[in-house]
Amino acid sequence: MSSAASNPSSSTTTSKPKSLKRNSDDIGWDYGVLVDPNNLNLIKCKLCGLQVSAGIYRLKLHIAGIRGQVQPCKKSTDEDKERCKKVIDESKQVKKARLTEQQEVRDAVDLDGAPEADDDITMAEVEEINGAGGKTIRKIGPMDKFTLPLDEASLIH
Question: What is the reported pTM?
Answer without folding.
Answer: 0.55
